[in-house]
Design goal:
Distance between the termini: 37 Å
Shape: globular
Largest sheet: 7 strands, mixed
Helix content: under 10%
Structural class: mainly beta
Order of helices and strands: EEEEEEEEEEE
Mean pLDDT: 94
Number of strands: 11
Radius of gyration: 13 Å
Strand content: over 45%
Number of helices: 0
């Protein structure tokens, strides 16, 4: 699976962005997908994940719960991360990843494929 993340940019605090992760190669529907982020000088951290079936089978980091929404459109081989009420602490490079595990997971080591990152900067 090849993953291509996009949609990052510069946004003011309180603003919104929608990230996209487009997959190609193997059958995308077989994989759960997660978003991770890494800020300068910090370790990569889990943001959100969604199962292969999508819907309500999602999981969020507590720091983004209620502000971010992950969704997927398997017909378009795309997973989205809608980010609202953005804060300067959300500034990071955001990565999408695909996992063949049957359960959704927040552990980076459970993900088999990774896309390149997209920069999100929240600043006034």
């Amino acid at each position: 699976v090849q993953l291509q993340a996009s949609g990052g940019g510069l946004v003011q605090p309180g603003g919104s962005l929608r990230l996209s992760c487009v997959a190609s190669g193997r059958t995308f529907i077989n994989y759960s997908v997660g978003w991770f982020r890494q800020a300068p000088g910090k370790e990569r951290e889990f943001v959100a994940a969604i199962s292969w079936s999508g819907g309500d089978n999602t999981y969020y980091a507590s720091s983004v719960q209620g502000r971010f929404t992950i969704s997927r459109d398997n017909a378009k081989n795309t997973v989205y991360l809608q980010m609202n009420s953005l804060k300067p602490l959300d500034t990071a490079v955001y990565y999408c990843a695909a996992s063949s595990k049957i359960f959704i997971t927040s552990r980076a080591e459970d993900y088999d494929y990774w896309g390149q990152g997209t920069q999100v900067t929240v600043s006034s």
